[in-house]
Predict the structure.
Amino acid sequence: MSKGVYVSKALAVSIIVVTVLAVSSIITMLVVYNIQIEKNPPQRPPTNSPTTPFPTGPPPNLRLPGDLVPEKYNVYLQTYFYTRLSNVTNQTFAFNGNATVYFKCLKTTKKIFMHSKDLNITLFRVTDENGDVVAGRLTLWDDESNFLEVELESALKANKNYIFFTTFEGEMFDDLAGLYISKYTENGEDRYLAASQMQPTDARKVFPCFDEPAMKAIFDITIIHRRDTTALSNAKTKESWVTTIDDEQWLVTHFYPTRKMSTYLLAFTVSEFKEEKSDNLTWARPEAVDANHTKYAQEKSIEILMFYEEEFGIPYPLSKLDQIALPDFSAGAMENWGLITYRETALLYEEGVSSTSNKEWIVTVIAHEVAHQWFGNLVTMKWWNDLWLNEGFATYISYKGVNKAEASWGINDLFVLHETQPVMQVDSLASSHPLSSGEKDVQTPSDITELFDSITYSKVLFSLSWSFMFFNYKSYLKAYEYSNAEYKDLWSHLQMVINSEIRVEEVMKTWTQQMGYPVITINTTSGEVLQQHFLLNQTSHYNFTWQVPIKVMKSGSSTLEADLLTRKGPVQKVMYQASGNQWLLANVNCTGYFRVNYNPQNWERLLKQLESNHKNIPVINRGQLIDDAFNLARAKYINTTLALNTTKYLRNETEYIPWESALENLDYFILMFDRSEVYGPMKAYMRKQVYNLYKYFEPYTMNMTCISNQYNQINAISVACSNDLEDCKETASKLFREWMNNASNKIHPNLKSTIYCNAIAAGGEEEWDFAWQMYMNATIASEKDKLRYALSCTENVWILNRYLSYTLDPSKIRKMDSVSTINYIARNVVGQSLAWDFVRSQWSYISQEYGGGIMSLGSLIDGVTERFSTVFELQQLRQFQKDHGEGSFGSATRALQQAMERTEANIKWVQENKQTVLEWFRRETTNL
């Protein structure tokens, strides 16, 4: 059992530095805000750490007991940092403050449990509703519970109201969690700002609180900050004034009380940012606002907000919705109610510099976060095990928002590529997890952080083609507004609007409470259909059965037939039979979350159709056939050669979805074979297949309005260059050299990433150093990201090693970009072993410095081990786990398990398929 401590270890040094300043400031603050502590003097926590735990121990499941419910907080925070430094400035990242929480006691108790992490609690007081002090003893628990416990001398009585007051000190770090510090450059000079990221469990790092999503309350926030800065929070500013504290003048910003909300949705920023003025404000670095980089996001966010108000039938609940672009941010964005925080790449757009994919990313992220203002903020999941209620809804609805804001894009057609196919890869592993886990399985902050994965975000059940999924949003939102819901609450509202013969909960639990998904096997000769749990690497030991909606089409017929498969099977149905040379295609337009396998005769007919006239098969299903075939082959349902045969027709294909599906799957072959003799024939085959596509898109100018065509031009150039089509490589190097020799960059924004990468790969130190200088000088984050990726493409080992060392230096590579930069280097076959050795040697430091908040290190483990396919590499993985201990990987634990599972499967797959694949590629390139 953990021992209690009173001062956070992480803050010990900083507390010594700021104690004198902090104590005097706190006393002044108390006077300024009329907190009458003189009537009931607060109790100072004991200075000696207890040697024995409290008698009954903490709650057994690391959850708050629930016998106390917060109703309102008054929070005062004072930040001391300077946004600009002079020669005489003594910079400090300390903050202090006080918090008063008004709570109700539901059950008689002699203990108060709240959360506090990395804070030094200097004073505390418990009073009843009459103002009488309830004496007690405070303990802070230095374990994963982060509990603040007060043992009281007399019991709190049921149905009575109480007040808990604390003063505290803390420090802002650059860990991108809680209240943190961010450093950036403006007009060539260093600047600082403070920002927050509370999700999932870091509000407790800012002030003591009941830090669970169901513990909703009203928050009255006041921030004291330097006079040359602006403070923002969830609500509008109610009043601001200048006051004197310790002979210095400070600006005090007091905000209106918030609506009832969860702690993880609180947000604070203190900066000298400017705003793009409108009904709702968009904030960013002054340099970015002056350059109009915020205008596009501002316009689209207003359009999307208005659309959602109409779609949901509920007006936006707050009086303002600000957005702010932060130089340092761990996630893509965060849906804080009334103050959405973004990475700069997700909010800032510069015409002529940012690409179409940058623009799509901005609108998609905005649509996702604005959707959360209803789904997640107005109605919140009760506990993190149902996180998908927030994220799944927002992902699904964001496509509606993007389609409204940019109707010409046809974004709905890309759902399968962006969401379905990627999440099916993860969900086909034995180490996957159900969409909705049990509460008992999600306890620690690491457990919670692990849930922020593609399963939660992209396994969107609303892609299933049941009509009852399109229900009345207003009923659900109205029933639980300003409150919390669990998945059963959603089913009850769905049940209200569908045929009573369909039991929604029975249908949906097969998709939410079971991991994975089925493969549907159809025999078009007999009409038999059956379902099995699809796993890539092993036979399923689970007795799963899904209720599967299936739509089929047959050649020569324009009619779609529908079925709901509720049994494992096999069952025989006429609709699954095909006669003569007729082919059958199931899961039309990929509206269902499953894979499809056929009898060999039907596969052969489908392949012939692709070769003769591929347009007779819907474009989304052309991509599905390729994706299903490759994954079925890896799971040994069909031969690998059949999967490879699905790519032969691509020499005549110009659509993006089939090409992207093929490239995503052939990428696995590259990872498995780019260190072997298979790679030469494979590159020759890819040159042959992409040649017509490259010629189709050969002009290096972009006059296409269709977003899919723009993306496919990028594919054409990337595949042609990376597979040594000389014309492509020469053009890429020529365009890059022209930029090096001239001040202006004439490379089209859409083509920058691939041109930069291929030119740097073909070049040497001169090209790399030029790109690095351009990276350091770039003023818009999207351009920095393109260059940061391209710098990983060099084939010089010593340069890659130097680049890896830069990832540990935040002045060169920001912390938020370190993981992705290491993964970029690992994707380069030259950098694979370098990146793996680097991660192993630096793991203790990386996990400590870069593993906070929702910045999961799971993606790092996944990225640097993606190419592993040898027994030696598997042994290294196991040794890596042994060296650090199985329990030391935190939020990366599941990723490490998946990496070992994947490596074992890769070893077996390569052993079984290498010769077959080599012969197939040689055969297909014999006459070249």
